[in-house]
Amino acid sequence: MPVTICPRCHYVVADPARPCPSCGYTGFPRLESPASSGAGQAGRIRVRPYRILLVFVLVISAFIGLSAWGYYKKEKSPGRPAAVRSARPLREAPENEYEYEKPPAGDDNVLSLPQLRWIVRERIRIETMREFLKTRRTASAIEFFNGIVEDYNRRGTSFQYNEDALRRAEEEVERHRDQIEADARKELAAL
């Protein structure tokens, strides 16, 4: 016996000649009996269970997307940004060759190791300058500090990176923390 689904409430109706028991819908197509149509099964509506299952799986897959499988993780907060997995290993750089590269402004850029070093260095500079400004406030120093924070916020609050790259950048920049803090204090003191 064929199954008919109500287009209004999606209730499975056993007899399309009668109204839908759930919502009262009566606009079901009239099916001819095989004897009167002469075409056998031509006038019947058939819903096969495997087709329903296939449609269900496709719809769920569309909602899940590739990001649910964890290939890219994103974070949009001023905290620690999320990681991007990569199969390639990071190359080792000699300790005296650390580069700092200012990343592009915008959200969700995938940053390189030199760009991550710049982010980590700027965090240290901002922390140091914030502490320095608590004791010595001048209009020019505050304006300079606000410019640095604004630039950092445009570039370093929402980005993606290789899993090990941020940890490595933090370790490399941390070795030079004293020099970075001293340079930041000198910059503000000169204003």
* Tally of alpha and pi helices: 6
Give me the secondary-structure category. Answer: mainly alpha
Give start-end ranges of low-pLDDT stretches. 66-79, 86-90
Main beta sheet: strand number and arrangement? 3 strands, parallel
Q: How far apart, in Å, are the first and last alpha carbons?
A: 88 Å
| C-alpha geometry | elongated
Query: Mind telling me the C-alpha Rg?
Result: 32 Å
In round numbers, the mean pLDDT is 76
Note the beta-strand portion.
5-15%
Strand order of the largest sheet: 3-5-4
Order of helices and strands: EEHHEEHHEHH
- The percentage helix is 40-55%
Q: How many beta-strand elements?
A: 5
Structure write-up:
Helix content is 45%, strand content 7%. The protein has 6 helices and 5 strands. The strands form 2 sheets. It has a 3-stranded parallel sheet. Helix 3 runs antiparallel to helix 4 (139-156), helix 3 (113-135) packs across helix 5 and helix 3 crosses helix 6. The longest helix has 23 residues, at 113-135. The protein is elongated, with a radius of gyration of 32 Å.
